[in-house]
From TrEMBL:
The keyword Acyltransferase does not apply. It comes from Shewanella decolorationis S12. InterPro entries: MetI-like (IPR000515), MetI-like_sf (IPR035906). This is Binding-protein-dependent transport systems inner membrane component. The keyword Transmembrane helix applies. It comes from the Bacteria. The chain crosses the membrane at residues 55-77, 89-107, 137-159, 196-219, 239-257, 288-314, 334-353, 373-395, 415-438, 459-481, 517-535. Belongs to the binding-protein-dependent transport system permease family. Its main location: membrane. Residues 51-256, 329-535 form the ABC transmembrane type-1 domain. Keywords: Cell membrane, Membrane, Transmembrane, Transmembrane helix, Transport.
Length: 544
């Protein structure tokens, strides 16, 4: 019975997978088209600079995020001090803050006309920039610092989990052999956490490669800004596709290097629950240093930007609280809701096929569908536009052949393109959540249900679906938040006259008027806090 279902639904699974990887193939086909004019000019002039800036940015952000995250992860996982219980989840809050908003806040603070330099000039009597030196934040280094502040929680979360799951017997052995906490960290915990650190660094590197808004605001030319400018500035889709193919090469190279670095690593350790007595108790001086570091990092990455944002929202509340704000909120919420529902439905179908099929080949559709998460928003926008434009033309040609009025840009001129792009990019999140939930369902339940005469369809409805509710909700929540925050694809694929909260805030940031878009930005941040709170509660339950 299950084999019959797998064979009948296998084509459905492959059809869904092909649809979701279609933008990638369309992008590669478009990039293969000849274009010597624009791309040849870019190749001989500025393209080496774009590539170098992108690689340097990825390198510095990866190093910066790793250096910021490691001390926090070790302190929260292995040390006991005042405030640790609250700081261990508070350090995840920077993930809710869009990087381009943090970039604007710090530019406003540290620019020549900002309060920091004004105070320095008033204090020391300086009258011009020639009288003193102050680093320019609108540089590659400034962009690396901002992105490191926003992205370090990826590494922090994985590293903290890895440190907490390490065998306590090894930690006890290191203590018996006279190792100090620092020696235990450097010789034992850090090498054993390398797989988790490699995954975290790879995630940070991919997010950096995909960033558009921050580098665009800082006027740092990278491959993502080059795609945007080539498409909208030159109007050349083929050259933009070629640049996108280079970004894909960088992203998939990062994934390949991460897997290659871990190919022979095998760690076998007996896990046990960490008790309070197993933690290193810090002295008063060490406690002050630990609190000072963690609180300073939290203030710089979240508290200060959100505080300034909140003050802007209060000062300009009357100007922002208008029908436009409500329309933007409805646009964002409806778009994110539709995307999350579609992604969860697709994830449920693909993972059910993978669950019930006895053939290993039927696991391929879910893996193919997950590749879209590696596509940056600017790259994905081009990949979506190419096939949807051809489909729009085909629909209108058929209408003309039937002597009917064509619908016009039915797909590319509506939010359908945005929903499709968001689904391609974020369905991997829903698949991962459903897959994790499926691993907790014993296969014996399937066998018992079939023995009792339940059809595979009823098996899904009566057994799997109730047990997958938590995983589906978590996946839908994460997809919803990511859809609310997604900017590059929304900027490039939005129909004329359509705005959501993310594009609205970005326009104000680009015009140096974030205070007018502070209220929508606060909404994005607050919505982004929801999955972090949910994630923290799940981690606390798992650790009990």
């Amino acid at each position: 019975m299950i084999l019959g279902l797998a064979r009948s639904w296998s084509l459905t699974g492959y059809a869904i997978a092909v649809l979701l990887v279609l933008p990638l193939f369309a992008l590669l086909l478009q990039a293969a088209q000849p274009d010597e004019a624009v791309f040849g000019h870019l190749l001989s002039t500025v393209l080496p600079t774009y590539i170098a800036n992108s690689l340097w940015l990825i390198l510095w952000v990866s190093i910066g995020s790793l250096l910021l995250a490691l001390p926090c992860a070790w302190l929260m996982a292995r040390c006991e001090f005042i405030g640790r219980r609250y700081l261990q989840w508070a350090l995840l809050l920077p993930l809710a803050m869009p990087a381009y908003i943090v970039a604007y806040v710090y530019t406003d603070l540290f620019d020549y006309a900002g309060p920091v330099q004004r105070s320095l000039r008033a204090l020391f009597g300086w009258s011009s920039p020639q009288d003193y030196f102050f680093p320019d934040i609108r540089t590659l280094g400034g962009a690396a610092c901002v992105l490191s502040l926003v992205l370090f929680p990826y590494i922090y979360l994985l590293a903290r989990t890895a440190f907490m799951e390490q065998s306590l017997s090894l930690a006890h052995a290191s203590r018996i052999m006279g190792c100090s906490p620092w020696q235990s960290f450097w010789r034992l915990s850090l090498p054993m956490a390398r797989p988790a650190l490699a995954v975290g660094v790879a995630l940070v590197a991919m997010e950096t490669a995909a960033d558009f808004a921050t580098v665009n605001y800082f006027a740092v030319p990278t491959l993502t800004t080059a795609v945007y400018d080539t498409w909208l500035g030159y109007g050349n889709l083929t050259a933009a596709a070629k640049l996108s193919a280079i970004i894909l090469l960088v992203v998939f190279s990062l994934i390949g290097m991460e897997r290659f670095a871990r190919r022979k690593q095998q760690l076998f350790q007996k896990q046990s629950r960490i008790q309070a007595s197993d933690l290193y108790r810090l002295s008063p001086v060490q406690t002050l240093l630990a609190l000072g570091y963690c609180i300073t990092l939290l203030v710089l990455a979240f508290v200060l930007p959100s505080g300034i944002l909140l003050s802007y929202a209060i000062d300009y509340f009357e100007q922002s609280w208008d029908p436009i704000f409500w329309q933007l909120s409805v646009n964002s919420l409806s778009l994110a809701l539709i995307t999350s529902l579609v992604c969860c439905a697709v994830a449920l179908i693909l993972m059910f096929i993978r669950r019930v099929s006895p053939r290993s080949s039927d696991a391929l559709p879910s893996r193919l569908a997950s590749t879209g998460y590696a596509l940056p928003g600017t790259v994905l926008a081009i990949g979506v536009l190419v096939p949807l434009t051809l489909l729009d033309f085909a629909i209108n040609d058929i209408a003309d052949w039937l002597r009917m009025t064509g619908p016009g840009l039915l797909l590319t001129g509506s939010t359908a393109a945005l929903v499709f792009a968001f689904c391609v990019r974020f369905v991997a999140i829903a698949i991962g959540s459903v897959e994790t939930s499926y691993k907790r369902i014993s296969p014996s339940l399937d066998m018992v249900s079939l023995t009792l005469g339940q059809s595979p369809r009823r098996l899904l409805q009566r057994v799997h679906l109730p047990l997958l509710t938590k995983g589906l909700f978590a996946g839908a929540l994460l997809v919803f938040i990511e859809s609310m925050k997604e900017l590059p694809a929304a900027l490039l694929l939005r129909p004329i006259g359509f705005e959501n909260l993310a594009t609205h805030v970005f326009q104000f940031v680009s015009d140096e008027k974030l205070e007018h878009g502070a209220l929508p930005a606060i909404v994005i941040v607050l919505v982004g806090l929801v999955p972090l709170i949910y994630l923290n509660r799940s981690l606390e339950q798992d650790s009990r």
